[in-house]
Amino acid sequence: MDAASVIPALKAKDYKSSIKTVWCPGCGHFAVLSAVTKALAHLQLNKEQVAMVSGIGCSSRVPAYIDSYGFHGVHGRALAVASGLKAARPDLTVLVAGGDGDGFSIGGNHFLHACRRNMDMTYIVMDNEVYGMTKGQASPTTAPDWSRSKLTPHGTGVRPFVPAAIALGSGASFIARGFAGDPNHLTKLLVQAIQHPGFAFLHVLSPCQTYRPEQKEWKKQVHECQMATTGDAAEAAHLLQADDGMALGLLYQQELSAWHPEQVPAVELEQIEQEFQV
Q: Which of the residues 188, 212, 244, 250 could staple to 208 if both were Cys, CB 3.0 to 4.6 A apart?
């Protein structure tokens, strides 16, 4: 083979766009972006075969920073958009990025049904337990006694959303947790998630240095999951009920048939109009 005709391997930097990031210094999302580009380079995916979809929030800026197809949707609807895209273009590698507010509050219903539908896509949720882009309000995953927000000076008093357990109960076939402070491990989990033939949920602990500076302590609190990855939902439920929310790794994986909508021939507009003629 002619050496000049050999296509050089893509590197992580090749998947980064020219748009400058606007996150706060020290934000965990930088590490998530790096993990995404490293995972794409590891898998050597063609840029034209990758689509990144997001909703609204600090984390949802990711599509702009990736040199691939991208769609910045409306608040909470990233999974709905991504599902439609995957249905229309099953050949694409579809990644979805969001945060704890976008994904578990206004987008919570879409999250439940994306888990049970099990379409072949990867959902990356960057959880910092706060609404960062709108100046630090409590989110669905915020502890009930967190009182630094002016809107909830005495805490919310509401038990937090438990993403991994709810994903399991909703039928997700791949559940993992990573930490932005360990980008190499996060990259490994992301590669596994993309390769998983079904809906892969990757919960990322991504500290917010601006509104949750106490999350710097997460680096001391995270730990490797002590139980081996299981494909048994009952075992996984026991694991997640005993989980402190800081266990990292692939928590659950089961080989289930990914859902593919039936492909039907396209119908011309004129044909549809004729059916409604009286």
A: 212
Q: How many domains does the chain have?
A: 1
Residues in the chain: 278
Separation of alpha carbons 186 and 181, rounded Å: 9
Q: Does residue 115 belong to any structural domain of this protein?
A: yes
Mean pLDDT confidence for 81-95 = 96
pLDDT digits (tens, 9 = 90+) for 254-268: 988 888 887 667 778
Q: Give the rounded percent of residues in the chain with a pLDDT score beyond 90.
A: 82
Beta strands in the chain (DSSP E): 50-54, 69-72, 93-99, 121-127, 174-179, 199-205, 223-224, 247-253
pLDDT tier, 3 (very low <50, low <70, confident <90, very high otherwise): low
- With a cut of 90, say whether residue 192 has pLDDT above it: yes
Q: Which helix (H) or strand (E) holds 269?
A: helix 269-275
Q: Exposure of 240 by Cβ count < 10 A (0-12 exposed, 13-18 middle, 19+ buried)?
A: buried
Give bridge partners of residue 124 from the DSSP assignment.
97, 202
Range of the domain at 168: 18-275
Q: Phi and psi dihedrals of 14, rounded to 5?
A: -70, -20
Phi, psi of 54 (to 5 degrees): -145, 175
Task: Answer for the pair 246, 221: CB distance below 8 angstroms, yes or no.
Answer: yes
Bigger pLDDT: 83 or 3?
83
Instruction: State the CATH number of the domain containing residue 87.
Output: 3.40.50.970
Of 116, 171, 113, 111, nearest to 140 (Cα)? 111
Strands 247-253 and 223-224 turn out to be parallel
The verdict on residue 4 lying in a domain is: no
In sign, the C-alpha dihedral spanning 7, 9, 15, 20 is negative
pLDDT at residue number 4: 53
